[in-house]
């Protein structure tokens, strides 16, 4: 398994532990709204928004491959 996969698995495991330990109901104030929700939902929603924003900012479908440069034979002096 590659290093990136291991790091992702460790971060997901830490996130699951974080969610499991934060089950209380909290009040979230956003502008003029007051929302009462479980911390689990708040943390999961925050993670989802972060993943979506990161994916959109990365835009993997918009990356262009650079055209391969034609290799020139080395110039010989002579």
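Sequence proposed for the structure above (78 residues):
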């Amino acid at each position: 398994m590659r290093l990136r996969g291991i790091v992702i698995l460790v971060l997901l495991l830490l996130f699951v532990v974080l969610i499991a330990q934060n089950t209380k109901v909290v009040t979230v104030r956003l502008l003029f709204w007051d929302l009462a929700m479980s911390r689990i939902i708040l943390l999961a929603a925050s993670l989802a928004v972060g993943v979506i924003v990161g994916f959109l900012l990365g835009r993997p479908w918009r990356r262009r491959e650079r055209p391969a440069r034609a290799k020139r034979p080395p110039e010989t002096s002579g």
